[in-house]
C-alpha cells in the first residue's frame, strides 16, 4: 500500500495537512515501511506558517486539487490534523485520511488511537 505522510521530522506524523509543504511517500508491505520520495506542494492553507490557521477559513477545491494531484496514487494520508471539508473531499476521491501522531515506523499497526 502506498501512503502519504505529513511530517517535518521524517520520524513522526507531526504536521497539519493544511500546513504541509511536502508529503513523504512510503510503501508499506506487511510491517516494512519504505520511504520512496518526498513530494513538494504549495500548502493547502494559505496563511503564514507561523500563524495559526483561522478555523473559519474557506474551503478551496482548487487548492485541494493541487495537493490531491501530488498524492493521488496513495491509498491513505497519515496526518496530525485535517479540516472536515478537505478530509471529506479526499475521501470522495478515494483517499482515506488517518489522523494520528505515531512514529512513521509504527504506521503499519496504527489505528488512529495514538492521538
Q: Which CATH architecture would you pick?
A: 2-Layer Sandwich
Series of H and E elements: EEEHEHE
CATH topology: the name is Nucleotidyltransferase, domain 5
Strand adjacency order, main sheet: 3-2-1-4-5
- How many structural domains are formed by the residues? 1
Number of DSSP helices?
Answer: 2
Distance between the termini: 23 Å
Q: What is the helix fraction of residues, given as a range?
A: 10-25%
Please tally the β strands and state the result.
5
**Which spans have pLDDT < 50 for at least 5 consecutive residues?**
48-54
Give the overall silhouette: globular
What is the residue-averaged pLDDT? 88
Rg from C-alpha positions?
13 Å
Percentage of β-strand residues: 25-35%
**CATH class (first level) name:** Alpha Beta
Helix- and strand-based class? Answer: alpha/beta
Describe the sheet with the most strands: 5 strands, mixed
By CATH's scheme, which homologous superfamily applies?
A: Dinitrogenase iron-molybdenum cofactor biosynthesis domain
Written description of the protein model:
The protein is of the alpha/beta class and 115 residues long. It has one domain (2-109): Dinitrogenase iron-molybdenum cofactor biosynthesis domain (Nucleotidyltransferase, domain 5), CATH 3.30.420.130. The chain is 17% helix and 25% strand. Strand 2 (22-29) and strand 3 (32-40) form a beta hairpin. The longest helix is centred in the middle third of the chain and has 11 residues, at 61-71.
Amino acid at each position: 500500500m502506498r501512503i502519504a505522510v505529513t511530517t517535518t521530522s521524517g520520524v513522526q506524523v507531526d504536521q497539519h495537512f493544511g500546513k504541509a509543504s511536502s508529503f513523504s511517500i512510503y510503501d508499506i508491505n506487511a510491517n516494512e515501511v519504505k520511504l520512496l520520495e518526498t513530494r513538494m506542494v504549495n500548502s493547502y492553507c494559505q496563511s503564514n506558517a507561523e500563524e495559526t490557521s483561522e478555523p473559519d477559513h474557506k474551503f478551496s477545491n482548487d487548492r485541494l486539487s493541487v495537493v490531491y494531484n501530488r498524492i493521488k496514487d496513495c491509498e491513505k494520508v497519515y496526518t496530525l490534523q485535517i479540516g472536515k471539508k478537505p478530509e471529506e473531499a479526499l475521501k470522495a476521491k478515494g483517499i482515506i485520511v488517518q489522523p494520528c501522531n505515531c512514529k512513521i515506523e509504527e504506521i503499519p499497526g496504527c489505528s488512529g488511537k495514538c492521538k
